[in-house]
Amino acid sequence: MKTRVLITGFEPFDGEAVNPALEAVKQLNGRIIAGAAVITRPLPVVRWKAITALKEAITQVNPDLIIAVGQGLSVTEIQVERIAINVDDFRIQDNEGRQPVDEPIEPDGPAAYWSTLPVKKMVAVMREGGIPASVSNTAGTFVCNHLFYGLMHLLSLEGSRRRGGFIHIPYLPEQAVHKPGQPSMGLDTVLRGLETAVACALSATEDGKFTGGTLC
Questions:
Q1: Residue 10 pairs with which residues in a beta bridge?
Q2: So where's the catalytic machinery, residue-wise (predicted)?
Q3: Per-residue confidence (pLDDT) for residue 205, from 0 to 100
Q4: Which residues pair with 9 in a beta bridge?
Q5: CA distance linking residue 159 with residue 23, whole number of Å
Q6: Which of 32, 119, 23, 16 is closest to 67 using CA atoms?
């Protein structure tokens, strides 16, 4: 059976007409990357429903690799997330008006989960390809982190059957033009970055040992 990669992208939120994550995954659907079939799914920006929809997609697709993609505020480059934390602390409401404060995602779950993607190698190969990228050490406390933690919790219960993680991408230029001072990245560059990252994740089962940290 051909290797399968599930890539998810969030729907628009916070008054935006588009979400670059959703626009990217629409174009990636059906592609073959490094010999693997890519299947994509949209996800709601809604607490709990995002995790439920992801679980349903995993059941349908039965992927070997899962990468969730989200739009990041003030993100200047493609950011491969290193860690998901067990807290929902929404600065804004989700798309159904929920705004939890300091609530656990899994009451009996660990404080955090590491991504099982080769995050540093993925960043390195994107940079080698001329694509701005970095390791991120916080996925925030909104629905992106909520989904990331839910994904890693599910994978931990399964054992080592498959790997997964989360990537944040910047606004599209057409969004940033209405947000003075906010960085952006063209969709073509985002797509090249995601394709490069997926190919790396498929080929590298272990991460590299080189710096990817930050000062603060």
A1: 43
A2: 81, 144, 168
A3: 78
A4: 42, 69
A5: 32
A6: 119
pLDDT at residue 3, as a whole number? 97
| Helices 187-203 + 119-128 axis angle, to 10 | 130
Q: Compute the residue count for the chain.
A: 216
Asked whether the CA dihedral 81, 8, 160, 194 is positive or negative, the reply is: negative
Rounded distance, CA 38 to CA 54, Å?
Answer: 15
Catalogue the active-site residues.
Answer: 81, 144, 168
Nearest 5 degrees, angle CA 117-CA 70-CA 214?
A: 60
Q: Which pair of structure tokens corresponds to residue 153?
A: 């919790």
Distance CA 70, CA 132 (A): 16
Task: Copy the structure tokens of residue 78.
Answer: 């493609």
Tell me the two tokens of residue 33: 């990357």
Strands (E) across the chain are located at: 4-10, 32-33, 36-43, 65-71, 78-81, 83-85, 112-114, 133-136, 163-169
**CA angle (53 as vertex; 163, 50 as ends), nearest 5:** 90
Fold of domain 4-203: Aminopeptidase (3.40.630)
Are 140 and 94 spatial neighbours (Cβ–Cβ below 8 Å)? no
Residues of the chain with pLDDT under 50: none
Q: What tokens appear for 203 in the block?
A: 């080929």
State the pLDDT at residue 1: 65
